[in-house]
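During the second year of the project, the team shifted from modelling isolated chains to modelling whole assemblies. The rationale, set out in the original proposal, was that interfaces cannot be judged from single-chain predictions alone. As a representative example for this report, we include one of the complexes processed in the last quarter. Its constituent sequences, exactly as entered into the pipeline, are reproduced here:
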Amino acid sequence: MSDDSPEIRYDQARWSDEDGYEPLLSEKNSREVDIETPLPDDLTRDSLELPDLSEPELARHYTRLSQMNYGVESGPFPLGSCTMKYNPKFTEDLAAHPSAAVHPDRPEETVQGTLALLGRTAEYLAEIGGMDDVTLQPPAGAAGEYTGVLIAKAYHEHNGDDRSEIIVPDSAHGTNFASAALAGFDVVELPSGEDGRVDLDALEEAISDETALLMLTNPNTLGLFERDIEEIAEMVHDAGGLLYYDGANLNALLGRARPGDMGFDIMHYNVHKTFATPHGGGGPGAGPVGVVEELTDFLPEPHVRKRGGGYELFEPERSIGKVHGFQGNWLVLIKTCAYIARLGDEGLRDASAKAVLNANYLAEQIDYEVPFGPFHHEFVASAGDQDAADVAKRMLDYGVHPPTTKWPEIVDEALMTEPTEIENKRTLDQLAAAFDAVADEDRETIEAAPERTSARRIDQVSAARSPQLSWQALENSE
Amino acid sequence: MSFTVPDDCRYLDSHEWARQQNGTVRIGITDFAQDELGDVVFVELPREGDELEQGAEFGVIESIKAVSDLYAPVSGTVTATNETLIDDPELVNDDPFGDGWMLEVDLDDESELDELLSPEEYREQIE
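Output from the structure prediction step:
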């Protein structure tokens, strides 16, 4: 490696003692605390062992855990189709503001500010997607998909039109298939054409008077724009079906093209991908759903609308009902609104431009073969003779997070890479250097990786064959 | 690499085998299939009494690398399933034609066996 190489030198911290990794708080020092409670004796304990630590001990514990982790604040995180973006801290400040702590059951007239923010967020999203109205209720992207499918189902039923099939391309996100099946539809899988896009002949064959919905993401999971989208929309609409837009890849289009203008009738927004709210990891998310005029009556309740000089909550006439409690995941929606408002038209256009530029620059730089292209916000390289999962493990040793691997399956040993707009040229060069270093390595080296991380290769086989899913199970097995 | 392809079995091109023995037909996946899949971690099988249809899915096999459907080489009624696979799915890797068997089936139509690939034809396919 020459001195001017942009390659990152990396060794992850590993805090451990004789028993293993950094101990749990209660293992460091704990103390029996007596419990007094009005609850019946047979339901309660007399005492509880609680951690007993000083503030610096506590601070060090969490710092150590974070040092043994890798996140978007550690380095590049080009996990394709996930859009791992840095979440600006000012949005966290706003969500943590005391005035954001509003009880969801308060009377409408006392929470006009909250409703106004929800209304404004819905308006922003509708404008960005080219939709006529947006529900903020669904708590995640997949929940948004399911909501959208239910809206399509309710629409067809209302028209006395019993349709049983949903068409999904083979390159689609797995959640598309699951959402369609969960709503009771038969899934018709659409094979991709040779150029990685929707094959119009195959689509013609798949469409029938049973077609309720075609679910597409555009650009698709290969990062390719569906050039024939207007023709596709016409084919589906002529057959009486609706067109659904999976918003996972909206980052590529922000401020430049709108699903509504392409002929889509329903779409969801992954606010954690496109508008820099945190990815779930089990925490609350949001997956708003936009619809065209014809479908607004079917939106979930409660829904926000303007009335007089203020806002109110109401139930749309033919609402599919509730999909989540109260007004949706409000604190996530604050961050969404703040991000859009701070960036504005110009900022959003700039984000999509850089997302596309970065993906295409990186695709050009790396040694791995990159079939298809030119791309939008992500590209899929092939690890060729190497195992994509081993490549990913080895990339960790170079201080970068690896791309998504082995998917979509239309590319052998896929390395699905999405640098996003947050990275500058220097970081992209470091990422390319990591790809290229691994591409040159032999099988033995990459199969032994990772070596420089706090945890080495995880024993996936034992984890899958005899999973220990609680601490009791773990203790029993020891 | 060369894979075991016993002469007393017939094969589906989706890598399941069927072996007629003691008036019943045993079904499993081939050595080639277990090698492609890698470490098997879970096998989902039908219940006794369920009906199989030749060429249709009868179960699911999951490995560290992939999840695949299992296809029935013959039509018939399931008379036994290999319950040891619930706790020891690795038997499919260790002994695919022996202890890693999956189902025993009461055959509907013996001529279906003739429609399957012969050991020679299957060997050719995986070469």
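Chain A touches chain B through six residues (CB under 8 Å). The first helix of chain A runs from residue 25 to 28.
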